[in-house]
Design brief:
single chain, 164 residues, alpha+beta, Aminopeptidase, 38% helix, globular, transferase, Putative acetyltransferase
């Protein structure tokens, strides 16, 4: 596997890999199951938008994994130098490349990037149901510091339908 810097022409491929990889472990997918489509967009559209936001925020913090000159995965990072923290918002691989140690290699690359920036901590989040992520992250020295519950409230007033 070769790891290289992100290029803007990678975006669509990274979005497609992400949408496929996050099926079943996306907060936005859970929201859609509970409330349906939001503003006419599905969870996949929102998740793809997260990757685009990563590319705008800190494109030099995205690292692309290639195998035989084909993009097979990536990791996105950004950092807050004042706080000394590096963040990893997204990492995904095509199905046939999962479970082969490539995610570990990308994470190690991201951690080395953070060390080179002089940061003190790296932060990554995952959902409880992501057993693979939970195992991988702890095996690389990440420690659980908190659990978070995501709440969503519909904003339409309860009597809006009665008024129309």
């Amino acid at each position: 596997m070769k790891i290289r810097p992100y290029q803007p022409t990678d975006l669509e491929t990274l979005q497609a890999i992400t949408v496929e990889a996050f099926q079943g472990v996306s907060i936005d997918e859970g929201i859609e199951r509970k409330f349906g489509l939001i503003q006419g967009h599905d969870w996949k559209w929102r998740k793809a938008g997260h990757v685009e936001a990563d590319s705008r925020r800190e494109p030099e913090g995205i690292f692309v994994a290639e195998l035989d000159d084909r993009i097979v995965g990536y990791i996105s990072t950004w950092h807050d130098p004042a706080a000394g923290i590096g963040y990893i918002p997204n990492m995904a691989f095509v199905p046939e490349c999962r479970g082969q140690g490539m995610g570990r290699q990308l994470l190690e690359h991201a951690l080395a990037h953070f060390r080179n920036l002089g940061l003190s901590l790296a932060k990554i989040e995952t959902l409880e149901q992501n057993a693979v992520g939970n195992h991988l992250y702890t095996s690389l020295g990440f420690q659980e510091v908190a659990r978070q519950v995501h709440f969503v409230a519909p904003l339409a007033s309860p009597d809006a339908d009665a008024q129309t």
